[in-house]
Amino acid sequence: MWIEVICGIVLYKVLRMFFGNDDVLDVETSDFNAIFSVATRLEKLYGGKAYVGLRIPDADSGSRQNIDLVLVTRGEAVVVSVKNLAGFVSVNADGSWLCISDHKHKEEHHPDPVAEAKHQASVLEAYLEQRGVSLPEGYLSSKVIISNPKFRTLNPDHFKPEVIQYENWVQLKPEPKGAFSGWIKGAFRAAKKDIQESTHQQLQTILSTAPMWDRLELKASKYVLGEFMEFKGKNEDIEELKYIKRSKVGRMIVQKTSMFGFAPTRLQVLYYFRDYRTEASSSSEGKEVTVRSSTEVVFNPQNAKKVRKFKLSDITSLTLSA
């Protein structure tokens, strides 16, 4: 019997070594996944470009304002706050939300999301003006999108019109060129004058180079926003990865697994050097190295109480903010 148990443990470890450690995916990624899912769908619905995970300097508070995403088209720019809440939600008299969570029926209090999104839009507008872009009146707006189908309320009419509730969110259809559907025009978009091409390009350049969270993409299309700290592992592997730091590298991609007989499984990592002469976060010039799959990325997720360690074998890519 003990021989069977030992063989089972060995087999389990071997399978984890070759196919990755799924335990790392128990980190709470659902909120981040919801943001990226909404960003992708908005781009498909309205075109334009969605900028995710911005950290815009707020001159008034001296801190940085976190913005889930900003959708930019020729017709408008929208600051979008994504709420991935599950449970019964009610609106208090001051605009704040009370959520009775499905998880252990825990009460969660949330400041007025509409007021927060409007404040984020005002901080973003001030930041853009500082960098030389003055937006036409009415071009920048804010919305709150409910992305979770388990979001429930007894009084949906109590929510402000800026809130796009889930049942409306899933009913949106791609917008025909040169036309607005009735619901989209009234609830999400309004007929607005296109900004000049030069202003549009300048706005995109500023947002693509604005401060933002570092981004981890894990296997199974799971995302984590936060701050890259360092690599952990064998000295020779860390030496190979020493050039991967935000001052030098914009993106790192874990390409494929290399197997050398009975040696530890190794991964090929391709990283692209940052080119400050261009608008892109990194140039086409890159370097490929091979390191052990057990090498770890130490990462501090946004709003997390402690840092996390992710094995390279569980990672698809790492994008570093400038």
Automatic annotation (TrEMBL):
Q: Which residues form the NERD domain?
A: 30-147
Q: Per its record, how is this protein called by name?
A: NERD domain-containing protein
Q: To which species is this protein native?
A: Spinacia oleracea
Starting at the broadest rank, the lineage of the source organism is: Eukaryota, Viridiplantae, Streptophyta, Embryophyta, Tracheophyta
Task: Give the gene symbol.
Answer: LOC110799147
